[in-house]
């Protein structure tokens, strides 16, 4: 790891701490899995509003597996792509009940074989539930990693691969948590607050203001 990367991570740790935080409310691994499926193209805050009632109505995985599609669609209607998400949640819950005895699997291969679960969702589960070192590439991570010069790629899989080479394993999960906070408070997609940024002197971004 280069000196500059080390300094960037040190400043992130100093600014945001090293605690593992999950912004999606959940009490069980399967609840987190469903919340992450719902969170695609949607804010965590909106998902948390919906799951507050959703997880009371469907308080077991079996209830999701046996849910009526049109009823579940209405329950999650305020979330984008609700038709697809409802279909995937029911199919995913059925697989978990029938093939995994209600347990959420831990390997990338098993997780990505579930309906509605891509690599990003799988890595959220692996990081938050199983503490498996994994890098979650969302819009904040992609944008800011490019600005910091950690990657030149847009494809999430390539960004993930680049970050694995640049970042030490003990920061893989942490990096995403810190970057979300950083992206929401300072390093916006438009009009980033460069003058208030603690990385201003070592940032390589052409978007600097």
TrEMBL record:
Known cofactor(s): [4Fe-4S] cluster
Binding site for [4Fe-4S] cluster: 187, 194, 197, 203
CDD domains: ENDO3c
Stored Pfam families: EndIII_4Fe-2S (PF10576), HHH (PF00633), HhH-GPD (PF00730)
UniProt-listed Enzyme Commission number(s): 4.2.99.18
Biological function: DNA repair enzyme that has both DNA N-glycosylase activity and AP-lyase activity. The DNA N-glycosylase activity releases various damaged pyrimidines from DNA by cleaving the N-glycosidic bond, leaving an AP (apurinic/apyrimidinic) site. The AP-lyase activity cleaves the phosphodiester bond 3' to the AP site by a beta-elimination, leaving a 3'-terminal unsaturated sugar and a product with a terminal 5'-phosphate.
Catalytic activities: 2'-deoxyribonucleotide-(2'-deoxyribose 5'-phosphate)-2'-deoxyribonucleotide-DNA = a 3'-end 2'-deoxyribonucleotide-(2,3-dehydro-2,3-deoxyribose 5'-phosphate)-DNA + a 5'-end 5'-phospho-2'-deoxyribonucleoside-DNA + H(+)
Cofactor note: Binds 1 [4Fe-4S] cluster.
UniProt protein name: Endonuclease III
Species name: Roseburia zhanii
A GO MF term: DNA N-glycosylase activity
Family statement: Belongs to the Nth/MutY family.
Organism classification: Bacteria, Bacillati, Bacillota, Clostridia, Lachnospirales
Entry-linked InterPro entries: DNA_glycosylase, Endonuclease3_FeS-loop_motif, Endouclease-III_FeS-bd_BS, HhH-GPD_domain, HhH_base_excis_C, HhH_motif, Nth
Enzyme class name: lyase
Residues covered by the HhH-GPD domain: 38-185
GO annotation, biological process: base-excision repair, AP site formation
UniProt KW keywords: 4Fe-4S, DNA damage, DNA repair, DNA-binding, Endonuclease, Glycosidase, Hydrolase, Iron, Iron-sulfur, Lyase, Metal-binding, Nuclease
